[in-house]
Amino acid sequence: MFAALLLPVLVPAIITMFIWALPGDPASIICPIETCGEEQNRLLAKELHIDEGMVSFFSHWLSQASTGDFGRSNFYGLEVLSFQEGKEDLLSESIPNTSLLLIFSLIIVSIGSLFGAMNIPSKKWDPVVVMIGITPIIVLALISGAFVEITYPGSEFADPKNWMKLVMGALTLGFADAAFSGTLLGVRETFSREKNQRYVGVSILRGETVFSNTFPNVANALVGQYRARILHILSGSVIVEVVVGISGVGDLLLMGTLKQDFSVVLAAAFIFAIFSALLLFFQALIECLIALHIRRAPSNVQFVDPSLEAA
Amino acid sequence: MKKMLLLCVLLCFSLLCFAAYQAPERKTPGSVLSSYRYVQPLSAESYQKCMSSGTEKNKSVGFGSSSSTSSSSPMDEELCSCMYWMGTNRAGVPLVEYASQGARIILFPAIVAGFLACLFAIAGGLLRCINVPFVDSLTQVFAEIVGALPRMVVIVICALLLPRDARGLMPLAILWAFLSAPTAMDEAGAVTVRLGGARFVEALRAHGFGLFRIYLYHIVALNLRPVVVRQGAEVMMQVVFLEVALSYLAIVAESGSLTHSDDVRSWAELLHMGYAAVVVNEPSMHALLIGLALIALIVVMATSLSTMARAR
Description:
Radius of gyration of chain A: 25 Å
Helix content of chain A: over 70%
Low-confidence stretches of chain B: 24-42, 55-72
Largest sheet of chain A: none
Low-confidence stretches of chain A: none
Order of helices and strands of chain B: HHHHHHHHHHHH
CATH class of one domain in chain B: Mainly Alpha
CATH topology of one domain in chain B: MetI-like fold
Distance between the termini of chain A: 52 Å
Radius of gyration of chain B: 24 Å
Number of strands of chain A: 0
Mean pLDDT of chain A: 84
Oligomer: heterodimer
Number of strands of chain B: 0
Structural class of chain A: mainly alpha
Shape of chain B: elongated
Number of helices of chain A: 15
Distance between the termini of chain B: 12 Å
Largest interface: A-B, 50 and 37 residues
Mean pLDDT of chain B: 78
C-alpha cells in the first residue's frame, strides 16, 4: 500500500531529479535548442517553471498532471492529453490500444492459470511448455509483425488490420518470455505444494473439495504472481507495440525517448506508474478480503458446549 | 549429463568470445579492409573480381541502416555473398561481421549483469540468515518499490536520461540487474528460510564450523548455488535480448541506437534483414537464420548453465 501511494509521485520525481542532475540547462534538455529554437526554449522555461528550479517545476508539473494536463509534445506538436472535443491529442488513442492489448494478453495468462490449477497438461509435457516460454519477445513480435504484414499488405488504416495487430500483439505478450508457461507452472507448483498439506487430507475425509480448501490459502500467492505477470506484460508492450505497429502508450514512450520529447516521456511514465500503483492497491485489497474470508467462522459449524457434552 | 552441459556452455561461451575478439575496435576504412581478410576464404583475386563485377545499378540498395562505404560496395551481390561463409548483405558487408560486432556489444555487459544478479541473490539469501528485522524490512521495501516498476519502461527512460556520450549497453545492463534483484533476492531468501535461516547457522556453529565456512560453503555453495546460477544465467540472457530488442526498436524508429555507437553493428540488424526477407521477399533469408541461430546459442548457453547447477 505504501509503494502504491509512493509510485506515481516517485517515478516523475526521479526523472525530474535526473534532468537537473545532468550537465547543461534543464530547459534545453527538455526541449533541445535545435528542435525548439532559442526564443521558444526561453518561453518554455517560463511556462513550465523550469527557470524557478527543480521543486517549482515538479510541483507545477504534478499539479497540472493531476488534472490531466501533461503539456504539449515538442516532436508531434500536439497536446499529450486533451479533454476538449474534436481536439487531437496523443494519449486518447494510445491508452485504449494498450488497455486492449493488456486485456487480450491477460486472457492467455488466465488460461495458463486455469490449466495450472487443473493440473493440465501433466508434468511429462513440462519441457515443451518451457520451450514455448523461452522464446524471446523480440522474435515472437517479429513473427507477429510479419504475419500481419503478409495477411494485410499495404492497408495501413484498415480496421481488420488493426484488430489483427492487437490480437497478434496479445498472443506475443501472452506467450513470450514465459508469460503463459511461467503462469501455468507457477500456479501448478503452488497448488501441488498446498495439496500436500495435512489439512487438505482432513478436509477430503470430511467430504469437502480440495479446491475450496486450498484456494483461499494459495490466493495471496496467486494474486502476487498475477500482478508480476501483468507488470511483465506491461513492460513487454513497449517492444510489441513498436515492432507490430500498434500505436499505444509503450510506442509513445519509446518514440518520446528517441526524439528527446520529455513531455511525452513524463506522461507515459506517469501512466505506467499509476497503473502499477493500481495493481499494488488491488493486490493489497484482495489480500485483505482473503484474510477476512479465512478468519470468518463458517456458518454451518455447530458449537458444542464441553460441559453439556460431559453431562 | 553435467559434463555434456558444461561442454555445451564452454562451447557457446568460447564461440561468443571468439566472435567478440574478432570484431574491429573502431570501424575505420583501414580496419574494415584488414578485418575483411579473416572472413575471406577466397583469394584476393576473387575479391577484386567480386568488387568489380556486375553493373552499376546493382550497387545501390542497402538495408536502411546498413553501413557500408560506397568504395567497398560490391557490384555482384550473389558472387560476393558466396565468398563469405555466412554470406553478405546487399551492400557486400559480410554477415559474420554483424555477428562478431554484436557479440562484442553484448559479451561484457551481459557477464557483468549476470555476476551482479548472482551477488544480489547471495545477499538476499544471506540476509535471511542473519535474522535482523530492520534489514528484513528494508529489503522488503526495496523489493516492493523496485519490483513494482515495469522494467522496460525504466530502461527506456534511463536510456533517455543518460548523456549521449555515456550511452551504451553497460549502464542499462547494470540497471537491468538491479531491477532483477528483488526476484533473485526473494527466491534465494525462500531457499534459506526453508533451510532454517538463523537456526541453521546456529546449529552449524554448535558443530564447531567457522562463519566463513558456514556462509560461503554450506549456505552459498551447497544450498543457494542452483538459484544463484540460474538467476545469473537468466539475467545474462535477458541482457542479450534487451540489447537486441532496443537496437531493433532504434532501427524501426530510424534513430541512433541506445546501446551502442552508430558505427557498430548489432544482431538486431540481422533480424531486421531477415524480416525484410519474410515480408518483402528480399534475398536475405540467410540473415534471419543467422540471427535466430545466435539467439538460440544464448538460450542454449543459459539453459545449460541453469540445468548444470540444478540441485541433485
